[in-house]
Amino acid sequence: MPEASVLPRNSTRAVRIGRITIGAGHPVAVQSMCATRTADVEATVRQILDLERAGADVVRLAVDSARDAAALPEIRARTAANLSVDLQENYRLAAQVAPHVDKIRYNPGHLHHHEKARPVRDKVAFLAEVAGKNDCALRVGVNCGSIDPAQAERFGNDAVAGMVASALEHCALLDGMGFTRYCVSLKDSDPAKVIEANRRFAADRPDVPLHLGVTEAGLPPDGVIKTRVAFEQLLSRGIGDTIRVSLTVPNDRKGEEIAAGRQILDDIARGRFRSVPENFGKRLNIISCPSCSRVENEAFVDLAEKVRDLTTYARDHAVTIAVMGCRVNGPGETDDADLGLWCAPNHVNLKRHSELVGTFGYDEVLPRLKAELDHLIASRGPARGAA
User: Fold this and answer.
1) Which of these, 314, 294, 311, 313, lies nearest to 303 by C-alpha position?
2) Count of structural domains within the chain
């Protein structure tokens, strides 16, 4: 297999993450994220080791509570994996997390959820200080569904511009503090937006390493196709230093994310670009988030598969259905879908765009989803290309 370093590469600076380095011509690193609850040490260590055996260069965990943070010392003691932690709304947990991991990812949009009166700059300074003292890298992780409210208001419906502006703002903040050991990610469930956002950012900041991914890519094989579309367009232009293929799969199949990422890198390095179906994006599009430790009910994965099977009859209709598994991304990232299912621990919130249709049990929501889908199809008329 050709080394990923044979790909054209932007001259990004080097950023060390534990025992590996991204940027500066180093091979493109492949990542995945544990789907276990971080506080469950046994299950989490087992999955970390499984992902390492699958070839993961970096393994990411979610920390959403002090209980999750308290599990990290034992996890660290039992694995030498390069560990990244995904901080949710509580940025101050970084102080407890940093001594035990190699990288911390924070979302600029989430910095507004705690201590709202405290300036964002002070929060970023806290994160940079903690990371510097503990030999950690940072990732500025911008997501379409949780853009900094000020940037969202500034750019209105242009989500790509809001994402790029938010990323550039945080790069300037970190640079001004003298902290340059960071990378950036700009993610969306739409491959076209991922391509556009990363190309715009790379044009302004070609020095900053980029983590690539299509968030909520969904179930395989469509999830792999969506991701491939973005990666082929970006990596072939030298954009991208580390990647993740985000798939909705059961916990014991998380290694498929690594295998898919390695295959895409190998194909691009060999000049093998896969054709994309001509009507991709003009037909039924099921968005579902990757199974991770933020998922509040593992029945979410089974529900996503049932939604796919239930809706095959609508495959020629340009309808987007989002199936989201957690409260972090669920509310915001179902707003843009025609129909959205945001899965809570014991019920599913069914939405039309941002409007809540109602809440239903996991065993009750599918018939109501079908009724909503049928109504939507009837209101739009025949599918594209139909006689």
Assistant:
1) 311
2) 2
Q: Which of 15, 60, 57, 16 is nearest to 208 (CA)?
A: 15
Q: Which residue has the higher pLDDT, 128 or 284?
A: 128
Residues 6+ apart with CB under 8 A from 214: 187, 188, 189, 190, 191, 194, 223, 226, 227, 230, 246
Residue 101 and residue 85: Cα distance in Å, rounded? 7
Rounded to whole angstroms, what are the CA distances from 165 to 137, 154, 208, 259?
Answer: 21, 10, 14, 33
188 and 151 inside one domain: yes
Whether residue 177 sits in one domain with residue 46: yes
Quick one: 258 and 289 in the same domain? no
Residues 229, 337, single domain; the answer is no
Query: What are 118-141's pLDDT values in tens digits?
Result: 999 999 999 999 999 999 999 999
- Dmax (CA) for the chain in angstroms is 66
Query: CATH number of the domain that 325 lies in?
Result: 3.30.413.10
Q: Is residue 90 part of a domain?
A: yes
Q: Residue 369 is encoded by which pair of tokens? A: 């989803």
Non-local (6+) Cβ contacts of 45 within 8 A are 75, 78, 79
**Structural domain of residue 315, as residue ranges?**
285-380
